Batch of 3 targets.
Target 1
Amino acid sequence: MATSTATAFPVVTERTPVTAFAAARTSRRRSISPDAGHALLMLGHAIEYLAEDLMSEDLMGEDRLAGLDVARLQAVELLMDLNREVYTACPELPTLAERWRSLVDLFRTSPRPKLHGSPSHSRR
């Protein structure tokens, strides 16, 4: 898979169906690095710019669903795919339940310290 020279994130060469992402868990938060955040910001601005450009031409009454508008729609779809790819490449954060379980497991597996007042110590 090729990578973008600007962000070093993989470039999508084939489209992934949206239903594959809809089936994935969407309620999980992700840890977004500063580089990924910057890439998401730039992609979001580009998507917004192209979408507004398409909408403003359509609202002006120009009937241009010819090759140029199809190319712009494909560009928006490509940017949206890249945006989704960058976002899903970020690691998911554990849920509160998962963090709680790992904390409990940590205490279960760690050796217990001996207390000074325990019966195993002899008094002088």
Target 2
Amino acid sequence: MTTEARITYSQDWPAYNRAQCEERRRVELLLRGLCDGIEQPPHPGRGRKPALFADVVYAAAMKVYGTMSGRRSTGDVQACAERGLVNKAPAYNTLFKYAERAELAPLLKALVYESAAPLRAVETTFATDSTGFATSTQTFTWTVTDVNRAPVLAALADQTSVESATVALPWGRVRPRRYVSPDRSSTPGSARSSRKSSSAGMCKGDR
């Protein structure tokens, strides 16, 4: 007889509730600290100065965090500017234009690394969706054999050169021997023919 049992986990509800209530305020402050390290590119010429990179990144990150469109996020970005978290609230179309700039992608990647650095000492298990639920751990042993082998030199013919001349010797690496299945011929031509016919049959069947 098989019965299904539902697995439940204990929850510190006061701590959970407090974290949920304070999440947005903490995100705004932590994001401001990350953006403080962004350097503004130099502006050549006398034209209108561009928006600060730090303000654009901050506003773009808050737009994504709020899961709203650029236009609907305008009020949130302006509220952050009123609290001094950005110098000037960039317009939503400014965010769209900066998102197409090539230098923005490596900058965002660097901020992700920097924001994750404090957790390096405490986090050891990760998941692609950042929840930890889709995580699987397995221990195995990987043994590397035939290490520190001496190089094998091919036979070289006698050489003759004049004094102070540059000498060039050809060199290369030895590739490992190909494994051949017992039910196939050991000749390279037979192996290629077998693979080619098998691949052709698969393509014909897919049609």
Target 3
Amino acid sequence: MTGPRVDEVAHASTSRILVVDDESAICSLIRDVLVHSGYQVDTAKDGAAAWEALRRKQYDLLITDNQMPKITGLELVRYLRSASLAIPVILISGYLPKQAKALTASLRITATLTKPFGVLELLKTVKKALGVDKHLTKRARHGCEPKRQRLT
């Protein structure tokens, strides 16, 4: 397996991500994958801890589970939006009820991932949420596209 492209690493190293999940194994796995891919990652064990972190630091992306004690992922996103924080959000959940799916548009949730999800799906969703794909597409139009590496 080859590593990320140079332009992806440069973008990743400047992107700070907050990962929120009450299941410590999932939180650690997501953190490890993102750190290995060059992102700066903080974690929180629940929505309340995440809200405190979001009030103290600036993040480029929030990845949050929905079903958590104290404050759910959707409630956390409501707090963000009511505080006028326009941070992109990836909502992850084992099950997302129809009512919650309807809220994702009104809360400007960037993407949703249903558990279980794969590492490549996670990384693709993160890159898209951070706008890496748009940046790379623009570069390709200007003839600056780096050589693509295949994952084997």
